[in-house]
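User: Can you model how flavin-adenine dinucleotide sits in this protein?
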Amino acid sequence: MPFAFDALVIGAGLAGSVAARELAERGGRRVLLLERRPHVAGNTYDCTDEHGVLIHQYGPHIFHTQSRRVFQYLTRFTDWREYEHRVVANVHGQLMPVPFNLTSLAIAFGEEKAERLTRKLTDAYGAECRVTILELRQNTDPEISALADYVYENIFKTYTMKQWGTTPEQIDPATTARVPVLLSTDDRYFQDAYQGMPAKGYTAMVEAILDHPNITVELGCDARSRLTPEEGGLRLDGQLFTGTVIYTGAVDELFSHQFGQLPYRTLDFRFETHDKTWYQTHGTVNYTVDEDYTRITEFKHLTGQRLPGVTTIVKEYSRAYTGADGEVPYYAIINEENRALYERYRALCQRYPDFHLLGRLAEYQYYNMDAIVAKALELCDRLV
Ligand code: FAD
Ligand code: UDP
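Assistant: Here's the modeled complex, given as structure tokens:
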């Protein structure tokens, strides 16, 4: 029997959803989208908790991008609430902006010393500049070096140990570079041109993306029970499937971990609801010197929801991913060895001419949402 679909997409996160929409709309393809969770939107999924607070089930998500194309694309499917995320570090009870900036400098060292350090930093790197902590630690000027040590010890070391189980030197330098030292008083967490939150939430935005007559979504369906990669080709429900397949899940899983498991960090989220209007002053407070959790986020700051007398927060605890049932592989651990292992799996996929790996899991990358949308659009530019 011929298939009722020309294209198969696995995973209804942002990657799979944008790809499905593009294939359906621009390509005129009939798309089957399989998602194993009981909902769409992947890790961006948001919903209302039992106290009526809009929460992000898989960790706080704030949209930001430099890409006009990505922003305009999503604007087809959502209005935006204007929101610029601001984060403070709790350093032994003292709160200071993160990324560490000139305001943090004054809080940590006092106005007078901060002024002198600012002059030195500006001479060394230029005004309004972004410097990574690893770069700053290379500076040999004794005062800048002491400052670098302070920032390293109080902002990066413990947080990174909690998040990655190892020191900042031992992780991919691009990871700590996401949060530079800023030689300005800009206290926003992101400096991108476009920032905001989908006005009705991410789930509603993704539902709108998937609302197309050529898209059929099946929830609660693990693609591995339907799709089998074999020597002679990909089989869908036992029959050879020669249409386009876009896979956004973990690639080692698809091949039954035959070369071993790709390493990831997972998170435990502990949600707490408090009977007060606000729990903390900022959307997120990073615990950079103590506590077992890395950060606390209070959702109402992000979503703008007005709800007096009640608020929900989430604490994030990071640990090694074991692959146990129910664990989610949130962060790829990017290093040479893991990249090489990933490449072995990717090579297996190249046997299938119209099979495409897309997304944070399938590409084993540390992508933000905007990068995912950009990648999905670029892939579909080529496919349709
Ligand atoms: P996912 O959202 O993981 O979607 C993959 C989907 O595939 C999942 O729904 C999964 O269930 C499904 N799937 C997997 N295997 C199968 C299978 N075999 N069969 C069927 N379905 C399958 N980005 C930002 O831009 N801003 C932020 O503030 C931000 N905060 C973040 C906070 C945390 C804690 C984390 C972990 C990430 C954050 N991100 C943020 C990144 C963002 O979550 C990702 O860029 C984006 O969600 C990735 O989309 P995706 O579709 O590639 O993956
Ligand atoms: N980081 C840190 N202290 C902070 C914030 C970030 O050490 O206060 C480091 C840490 O290694 C973290 C990385 O910078 O994993 C990237 O931070 P980001 O907030 O971008 O991580 P995400 O939101 O993706 O978890």
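A couple of observations from the model: The mean pLDDT is 97. The radius of gyration is 22 Å.
User: Helpful, thanks.
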